[in-house]
Amino acid sequence: MKKIKLDVIPALPGVYIFLDEKNQPIYVGKARNIKKRVSSYFTKGTQTIKTKLMLEKAKDLKFIVTSNEVEALLLEANLIKNEKPKYNILLKDSKSYPYLKITTHEYPKIIISRKIDKDGKYIGPFVNVGDVRGLLKEILKLFPIRTCSEATFKKGKICINYQIKRCSGPCEKLISKSDYLKNVENIVKVFSGQIKEVEDYLREEMLKASKKLEFEKAAELRDRIEGLKKLSVKQIAVLNENVNIDIFYFKNMKENIFGIAYIFVRGGKIIGVDKNFLEENLEEDDIISFVSQYYYKKWSKPEKFVVIFNNEVVYSDVLESAMKSLFEDSKIKMMKRIKREIIGFAERNIEVAFKNFYEAKLTDKDLLNRLAKRFSLSKVPNLIECADISHLGGEYTVGVSIAYENGKFNKSGYRRYKIKTVENDDFAAMYELFYRKGLRIKEGKEPLADLYIIDGGKGQLSSAIRGFEDAGVQGNFIAIAKGRSKKEDLKSLVSKEEVFLPERKNPITFQRDDSILLFVQKLRDEAHRFAIEYQRKLMLKNIKESPLITIEGVGEKTAKKVLKAFPDIYVNKNISSEDLINKCKIPQKIAEKIIDFVRNKS
After folding, report:
1. How far is CA 397 from CA 391, 502, 532, in A?
2. Fold of the 542-601 domain
3. Which residues form a coiled coil (predicted)?
4. Is there a contact between 59 and 1 (Cβ–Cβ < 8 Å)?
5. Quick one: DSSP state of residue 254?
6. What pLDDT sits at residue 421?
7. What's the angle, vertex CA 166, arms to CA 161 and CA 171, rounded to 5?
8. How far apart are CA 594 and CA 587, in angstroms?
9. Burial level of 107, CB count in 10 A (0-12/13-18/19+)?
């Protein structure tokens, strides 16, 4: 990069930003003294490999002065969130954790939400949405409250949930308001870890019912108590006190690999543990930045939080002050110590997860090495994308690309394309997809993958390459397709699927169980799934334009049922009228009409 004039850099708190040749941020950092921190980057003997690479790409530097280090930390988190600089340690997993939301309605309902607004009470965060759904299902059996929409509630008629005893029927006033709100309160307590308190309340109510000779009610309360005991077993108590703590555990597992565990304690009990690994060397400043990024997304507001670095608790008054400022809450506390048992629990969890991670990584690395060799790639691919074009009888033509990075699918790299220029022309659609993708890459809006896999044959492969070339971009491509000239021979060890390379006349064939073929098929199948999902969304959004409603006797409601159950009905010839009858619950005559219509259309 051009020579930095250190004398123009202020010795004040703030943020410094390294820029590349396109004036795009590639690294953002914060400092108590910008001048001193920037100077350290150019001190020989202290540069890491990553710093050297970053400085090679950097062409300029700019800085923003702040009033104090707290402001600098929050500004750094904001810039990293918005700019996603290449050399910063990022929260690459863009998911937010699920919460349970209790609405502010007169008769509150309970739903799962990943977004926190000011229109309800939130319990969480939880790590696994499937576990939350399962737990909610069990708790609604014990304390039935509504989960229906406001429109359904206003109809004033009980639904199936009342019949299966998962709702108490407040819409028809089948429960008093006070009893209903007590159910809500008990659910909140259970999810907040206060199961013992709820159990004591139910036991007291059971005794009251027995004294009044209300034996049926007493038996029902006894069953609730037994159900609560089963739920209680699923929660791990780590603290005797009723506290809520977010725990961030960082440990150096191996050179250039750090393990991170997020542990959520609510009511003194662990309600979720999430684990992740970064192929980075982390220092204390990186960890403080990482935690500030997490909270800057406002995934959850902490009451207390603790940061553990290589089994030692780290305290930062700057980070604590930043969180108080961010959430406008002076009660937020960063803890200076925590029980050794919790550190041990975090360490055991991360070590077990690391063993699986590292074994998978070694396997994946070996596979990608062989893939690079087999397809004559200049380097082992880290980021691989797979593209698919899909249409239904010439309509709803869409394109998608999915991303596989660092040994796993990266959902934040998935892209959807509503094809604008053509209908029922796979070659032209593939050209459009890669022309548009190429323009985004050229503008720096998405990265260039190390390898692109095309779902299709030689024609689709050529179209994709031409789309890139016309956008002014070069890339590595292969395509996978079923051999047209061959019939599937189940006795043969050779797969019917073939892989096409740009400079090779004949396709490459594989044994059925070849790990390279299975890997490419896995990516192709994920792209196909994503394309069908996108098509289904478009079809249901534009249900009034669906060809199905031109069939006599088929309205929007029936068309929606069919397309939800069978989004590929136009192209999947294996779907029968019996399938429609069984899954969509429609009359035989209508089902037969639909099948005849789609068969003639295709």
Report:
1. 4, 25, 10
2. DNA polymerase; domain 1 (1.10.150)
3. none
4. yes
5. E
6. 74
7. 60
8. 11
9. middle
CATH 3.40.190.10 fits domain 383-532: no
Q: What are the residue ranges in the chain where pLDDT is below 50?
A: 93-94, 233-234, 485, 490
Instruction: Please choose, from the candidates 237, 240, 243, the residue with its C-alpha nearest in 3D space to the C-alpha of residue 306.
Output: 243
User: Tell me, what's the pLDDT at 233?
Assistant: 44
Both tokens of 152, joined, read 């359904």
The domain locations on the chain are: 6-83, 99-237, 246-352, 383-532, 542-601
Tens digits of residue pLDDT in 145-158: 888 888 888 888 88
Q: How do 304-309 and 312-314 pair as beta strands?
A: antiparallel
Q: Which two tokens stand for residue 162?
A: 């009342």
Q: Quick: pLDDT tens for 15-31.
A: 999 999 888 999 999 99
* Alpha-carbon span 177 to 157, nearest angstrom: 17
Q: 264 - beta bridge partners?
A: 246, 272
Q: Which CATH superfamily is domain 6-83 in?
A: GIY-YIG endonuclease (3.40.1440.10)
> Quick one: tokens of 455?
């779902």
Q: What is the pTM of this model?
A: 0.58
Rounded to a whole number of angstroms, the CA Rg of the chain reads: 29
Half-sphere exposure of 418 (CA within 13 A, CB side): 7
Query: Which pair of structure tokens corresponds to residue 11?
Result: 């010795």
- Confidence (pLDDT) at 95: 55
